[in-house]
Amino acid sequence: MTVHAYGAHAGDKPLEPMTIQRRAPGAHDVQIDIAFCGVCHSDLHQVRAEWAGTRFPCVPGHEIVGRVSAVGAHVSTLEPGDLVGVGCIVDSCQHCADCDAGLENYCDGMVGTYNFPTPDAPGWTLGGYSERIVVHERYVLRISHPEEQLAAVAPLLCAGITTWSPLRHWQAGPGKKVGIVGIGGLGHMGIKLAHALGAQVVAFTTSEGKREAALALGADEVVVSRNAEEMAGHAGSFDLIVNTVAAPHDLNPFLALLKRDGTLTLVGAPASPHTPPEVFKLIFKRRSIAGSMIGGIPETQEMLDFCAEHGIVADIELIRAEQVNDAFERMLKGEVKYRFVIDSATLSA
Ligand code: NAP
Ligand code: ZN
After folding, report:
1. Average pLDDT score over the chain
2. Most buried one in 19, 46, 281, 318, CB count within 10 A?
């Protein structure tokens, strides 16, 4: 079937309206009429070919929410009308140790929601800046938030799970001091989630103007990371720091803030490398640097259910599809509080 979408034909070209094909639902497929799709910084990295291997045309978007409009013959747990989400994963091998552990995000055969090989036309996946998507039922998440919050739920499908997964893995909770670096789409969710999990939360920002806003998001304290004195006040005190920054920078000042056995987890994925870590900063207090990629399907459902229970959604600015190129520029300047979300109804306008 033909559906309207927004995508780019080259890394140096703006996104523009286009039509794409979606497969008819197979036995285990769920067809979703997309209501909203969040705009992740990864969409910008990929569509502008900042990361290697972008295939064009590229239709980004992996923070998808909408309603089921058809299901395949073997789908028993979802039905037309259900409110659902799709995040960064639309398929995986389904039989390796990672898939068995519900960590499909680490499966070597993981198929991302856009730019990954698929038998469907044109040969690679096309994402959520589109009216409709067809996805195997295993990768479809249930949404139990009230429908009026649906647009603000969309960013949970990437920004939410990408911060939730490391917070859970490194056991953020009562008695733990957790730092969140970068108050953007991911970072603002990290603050909300770490706070709701009961951790003591310190937000790190390069933007003096975000101080008050970070406190309102749930941070107990805010540090402007360019201020060495403020940074030094927290030396050796963190259990976990989750770094969401989308650009290369010096990690060493953050390593110095970890206590013994503390971990600096990188989720931000800049196109060029950070300043290398100083070995002695790691050795002296048995500190670790780690990475974390999105999250598996069961933990994504866990995060969505937790957010519904605690009334947590993203802070968003709803845009029309034709505003997405401007939205990318504003995201680069940090001029969004904190996530743009595309109203999919405007794709066919
Ligand atoms: P975003 O909304 O643009 O937020 C990034 C934040 O980083 C900014 O708000 C800013 O916060 C801080 N920053 C400081 N210096 C910067 C600079 N020179 N350029 C850009 N940001 C700077 O981006 P996002 O959507 O949260 O994504 C953040 C990163 O995570 C991206 O690289 C994205 O590709 C990556 N990502 C990774 C995964 C994963 O699975 N690991 C999943 C999704 C996204 P302050 O103003 O507070 O300093
Ligand atoms: Zn994303």
Report:
1. 97
2. 46
Give the ligand at the shortest distance from the Cα of 62: 2
Mean pLDDT of 172-188: 98
Report the chain's terminal Cα–Cα distance, integer Å: 18
Tell me the pLDDT tens digit for each residue of 125-158: 999 999 999 999 999 999 999 999 999 999 999 9
> Which residues are near ligand 1 (CB < 6 Å)?
40-42, 45, 158-159, 162, 182-187, 205-207, 210, 244-247, 267-270, 293-294, 331, 334
Atom 34, ligand 1: which residue's CA is nearest?
42
Q: What is the pTM of this model?
A: 0.98
Structure confidence by residue, pLDDT tens digits, 40-81: 999 999 999 999 999 999 999 999 999 999 999 999 999 999
Residue nearest to atom 25 of ligand 1 (CA): 41
pLDDT at 153 (0 to 100): 98
